[in-house]
Amino acid sequence: MAKAQRGRRVRRPSKRSHGERSGREGALRISRRALLKVAGAGALGLTALGTVPGLWRWGGAAPAQLKGTSLSILQATYFIPTAQDLYKKQAAEWGQGQGVTVNTDFLNWPDLQPKISAAIQAGGYDIVELFPGWNYLYAENLLDLTDLADAVAKKGGGWEGFVANDIKVNGRYLGVSHGNSNDALNYRISWLKEVGVNLPDPAEQARTGKILDLTFDEWFALGKKLKAKGHPLGQALGHSQGDPPSFCYPYMWSNGAMEVEKDGKTVAFNKPMFVDAMKRFIQAYKDGFDESGPSWDDSSNNKAFHAGQLSMTLNGSSIYAVALKDFPEIAQDMNHTLIPKGPAGRFSLLGARTFAILKNSKNVAGAKEFLAWWFDDKQYGDWIHIQGGYQLPSTKKWAKDPMWGKDPKMYAFSLQPSIGRDQGWAGPPNAKSGLAFSKYIMVDTFAKAVQSGDAAGSIKWGADQLQAIYGG
Amino acid sequence: MPDLHPAAARAGPLSAGGRGTYPRSLLEREPSLGLLLMLPGTLLLVIFMAYPFFLGLWLSLTDSMIGHAGRFVGLLNFVNLINDSIFRQTARNTFIYALVTVPFKLVLGLGLALVLNTRIPFRNAIRAGVLMPFIVPTALSSLGWLMLFDPIFSPFSWLLKHWGLITRNINFLGTPVLAIVSVMIANIWRGTPFFAITILAGLQAVPAELHDAAAIDGAGAWQRFWNVTVPIILGVMLVSTLFSIIMTFADFQLIYVLTKGGPANETHIFGTYAYQIGLSATAIGQGAAIALYMFPVLAALAILLLRYLRREVA
What we know:
Structural class of chain A: alpha/beta
Oligomer: heterodimer
Strand content of chain A: 5-15%
Structural class of chain B: mainly alpha
Largest sheet of chain A: 6 strands, mixed
Distance between the termini of chain B: 38 Å
Shape of chain A: globular
Radius of gyration of chain B: 26 Å
Helix content of chain B: over 70%
Number of domains of chain B: 1
Largest sheet of chain B: none
Number of strands of chain B: 0
Helix content of chain A: 40-55%
Radius of gyration of chain A: 26 Å
């Protein structure tokens, strides 16, 4: 931009008066040096055309240096299989057009981070998908993509709040966010009605804005009734990075505790209100939940819900998406609502997932070209649409997309970004919050509590672990 | 073949034989031939064992993070780990895991070997079948166990419920005691064939004449087993046991697939915790220190093993 401005400066009229400029003398006079500057700015502009989304010349000539190269992309496996297939197809199409061999690998969520760590040490991947916080953990090994991220944000009307919170590392974008998968309370309509719950009409939800509004205590009480009828609630508490933390972090925040205060140093985990809330959760887990949750991973509650074993569970809309295809009677009988609220409010664990380029990539140019192309509205939009709301987009303009009105049962998910908080909140997102997340401190605190029945002891254990991370 | 002549060999590589005979004479001299034969193995050991080991040793003495070379911190990682309650739990789990499973594997393996050593129909096919748990890739068989231990769809739970013995599913991997017991059962299943086949090899070396002689002297089956068979296969049993302890201490795949160290770290062993801290939490220096805590135990066992083997050879 600075160079372009310098280029414009050469067009300034001479200091002669307007009347003096006539004929040859009045024409714009450009020195050779100025001409070179203009040419330089023009060249920069042309280069930018190749990287700014929307201006990418899909179908045009590929940059010669990309032909014959290869590009490897690593990301988490999808819970919406059609979206994974679409991504593979898109990548293959781009590769074909550019003469680039594209390899796309999809890993089970808990296996993704170790693989990225190995790739940073030993190479092998160009583009990797980062879960929230990992951009801080791997900051020194990621390419600065500020130009591209700024262009994507500008084109999309700005980042969604949950994205803006945590994607800048020391003022730089070390990747471009694609948003995150959604999360809400999935419930069986008939079973809730059976225990006397007054449910909103799914078809009217979006118009009235009314969804099933529960506090955690109300949810637990409901669970007790449902379990008595053989339809327990389900909540995973195993070593997995999706569903277990999606419950544990919000429950802590809703009950007045947090990993760390705003200063990022003062651990605020062991709070009396949270200890009391944990006591209630321990009792509720016995009374209303399927108690095998401590051994569940991210897919366990999906399978159990589809098997008719659960009445309510926190999950993305992947349960619903699969049910629409394979279990239509369950899809018909289910709906979604936001996670319950507690005395301190209603929260959802929601940070940004990004596509980043590793510094040790052997094909930085190809990786940048691909990301610029993929974040164009056509590709990104197709990818968003095929997931029917499972993927929360990263920029604001998609909030008004007609996709949200297509299925009224998806309405609750459109509200989720407004209550999203990143791991480590109220402290700043950084490597320490990422470390606490990777060590499953929060999840293990809850698992210990339900196993031992000792709320205070489990929270003290968690606070000690957090102190070692944040205070060390 | 002039260079095979004793005189040429005595002349040495640089004398009468000339340059053309140098490599051949090198091959004929026992010390140099020995060195040459050792070279490929040594290279493999240096590249794949010694280098990673010393790199791990160095990393454990630094505060390295993934992609970020750390600085030397001495034994700080080791000291910090002693104060880490998860690490202490991990150490406890590892010892329980190894010290409980190995005796079971030894006893079951011995029993299996004795059965397989008798004349039974389809003996060879059964022997091959017994090896299956050991041959099948652990990651694959662990997935099988994951399905068997599924909290909701476990066939064990289904069967027991079907028979009216239980009313609700068994939470195999979700409670502290059951979780470690379950992973130990899977480990015993996988490790028993190793004992069975090694001990079977030892049993086949027991001369039938000794048994016959003992029988003539009036020894019963138990006495023949205890006084004839056991002394002969004792060495094999000892070596198998030491090997198995080493392998069990260094286990990873089975636990990683089944529980990833959960619930609440109840099944973490050194390998899985080192992996979690070193690669997931990116603290590669501390991860290396966790893995190295195994080293003294494994080194002591390896020394015992080597001393025993040397004594046997002598």
